[in-house]
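Practice problem. Given the sequence and the SMILES for flavin-adenine dinucleotide, write out the predicted structure.
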Amino acid sequence: MDILNYTEEHHEFRKRLRAFLDKEVKPYAKQWEEDHIVPREIWNKIGQQGFLSTSISKEYGGLGGDFLYSAIVCEEMASTGQTGLAATLHSDVVVPYIDEYGSEEQKRKYLPGCVSGDIVTAVAMTEPGAGSDLSSIQTTAIEEGDEIILSGSKTFISNGIHCDIVIVVAKDPAVENPYNSLSLYIVEKGTPGFEKGKQLEKMGWHSQDTAELFFNNCRIPKTNLLGEKGFGFLMLMGKLQQERLVCAMGAAYGAQICLNQILEYCKNTCDASGKPISKSQAVQFTLVEMATDVKIGRTFVEKLIADHMGKKDIKTETSMAKFWMTEMANRILGRSLELMGDFGTVEINPALRGWRDARVTSIFAGTNEIMKFIIAKLMKL
Ligand SMILES: Cc1cc2nc3c(=O)[nH]c(=O)nc-3n(C[C@H](O)[C@H](O)[C@H](O)COP(=O)(O)OP(=O)(O)OC[C@H]3O[C@@H](n4cnc5c(N)ncnc54)[C@H](O)[C@@H]3O)c2cc1C
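Answer key:
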């Protein structure tokens, strides 16, 4: 029995999304990778077709879909060979903060644009001196009358260049306990004092606009506080289960795509004797091990999607999945390149791009060491 129950509507949605990606994304993926950015209009195109923020209720222009729609988008996007159109990050990581913690006014103002692609979102936690340890965040938020003044800088922010709004994590310097000092603020593009810095040149995720952001006495209205003041840390923690799950899903789907490609490659590439290399027992054993890894990963991820949809507390399991799935994807991509020999090293080979992109997944969204640190705590070790 399948773990996930996709309905006819889900299948129809996947078909439409696949057709959209075949026409509007895949043919341009290589160019976007070379440009180190995707065109801003592609966000509008994908949004107008109803593929962004599918979980947002119809009241705010969304589909009101369940998490299986997110899973479909995550899986289909994994096959596009580009990372710049980060639909899953926008729809399933950032926008849910507004959807869950936003005031009615904030939801009416921002959610319809998040669905249509008129608003691209980012979340800014990381700073030059604060990555894994959020308690060392230095960006300050000081109230003055009806305004809040933000000062500080953020780095490695996905969608940093294209973002129209960014959710900024900042602290009230008057509060001593760092965990009670953090709050979330919505900052709009063009606000005086908010500057987008340079785009970072990375080893992978070339088409993704990862950037530095600067806040120099950036004044925002008090109404741009997201959720309750001082609850920033708790709000971030509350959303991490889904963030880790989608990261694990992306890794599992990416590994599956890579496996499908390498199986075809080994069946269709001959060795010096003229036999397909898949007939060699050494290659067969490698492929069997890879297929086993992918099968185990996919089964676990699907179980977690079902549990997440059932609103179960699976923080331990999603942390396990984040580190295991990203390590597994790295193993699969690395072994694929070995099997491809010299073809594994050339830029036209999509597996090379995948290998580069997989490398970073053990670092972002909480490093894999941090995942183990969390699991050890949850296991009360
Ligand atoms: C492509 C990309 C996109 C990103 N997008 C975003 C984004 O949109 N928004 C955002 O806010 N951030 C983003 N980040 C930042 C990312 O979340 C951080 O890189 C990550 O949290 C790790 O922080 P750090 O690099 O400062 O490493 P550090 O925290 O300095 O860690 C360095 C090393 O020490 C280890 N370590 C640290 N603490 C512990 C501990 N307690 N126990 C064991 N080991 C530990 C880490 O595992 C790591 O190996 C992105 C990063 C990348 C590369």
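Check your answer against the key. The beta strands are 121-124, 140-144, 147-157, 165-171, 182-188, 194-199, 211-221, 225-226.
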